[in-house]
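Explain this record to help learners:
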Amino acid sequence: MWFGAAPLGFDFERAPAPTLAVMETSLNTVELAATGVKVSQLALGCMGMGTLADDETSFALLDRYAADGGTFLDTADCYAWWWAKGTPGGQSEELLGRWLARGGRRDRTFLATKGGGRIRDIDAPWPAGSDTADWGKAQFVGAAAGTLRTSLEGSLRRLGVEHIDLYYVHVDDRSTALEETLATLDDFVREGKVRYVGWSNVRTWRLERLRGLCAANGWPQPVALQQQHSYLQPRAGLTGSSIVDDEQLDYLREREDLSLVAYSPLLKGLYDAPPAERPGHRAMGPYAGDAAARRLAAVDAVAAETGCQPGQVVLAWMAARRSPRVIPLIGTTKVARYQEAAAALDLALTAEQLAALDTA
């Protein structure tokens, strides 16, 4: 997960309490890239666990997700220093370690974590207000060999596991040679401490360059790209490397060996907000414009037809996509919010409804 307009500049799904009744569900599975490994069609983001939510609240959600057949858990070694000022992060991993130890579910859990997003100086003075996000970016430890080694060993210790199923480079560190980072990830895989590698918050040209280096050197290719992606399309002229644009979508369509794991698919509750509040919503900035208004109207129309919430329509639309295939990543600490999202994946949109959404 990445920076947005959330408190302290960080992204987290915070939608209103669900109003739609949900039924017990069983999560479908999809193949991760071309690995042959099946993961849940809905990944569960654990960013707020251990800080915003205590063990009891978090365990209730994790237990519910696991009972539904959920397997794909996502965290990071830096989650969540911004909610625990004066700490380096790691609270989410520690909580997941306690949950795994309690339930004996390691062999049924596909565990993803990330390295590179911690900050160098936790005692540095914090700026006020919106400047915190840029301050955090300037503080990242990055993806040099020694840094990643320290990050991975810390994650393994906090999680209480012998290996990570999917290890992401959390931030694209341009101050470190890609060869150094990729060779280090190769070492992790050879040592059996990491099964698969991924990348997050990266531009397409950098992704192509690192994939070329992997091919040339026999290093493991990334199998997952974690970016912000939703139904709304980013506005023209948007800068930044964290949101999927048309070029990146085109790139992914041609590469079935790379899965898109979409964080913030519901844009912090934007779709379910009252229409009058959407233009000023904290998540609207990267998407604002006439195109967004048309697409929101299309979502609302399908929601009225199906009796679902607009956010559920968005998740159903994402689940129906075939090129590229997308794995939505829901960040929440609320069982009801998770159940609402899971129920959306059982919503079968008609061909006409999908066409209306696609062409809006």
Remarks:
- Residues 7-359 form a domain with the TIM Barrel fold (CATH 3.20.20.100).
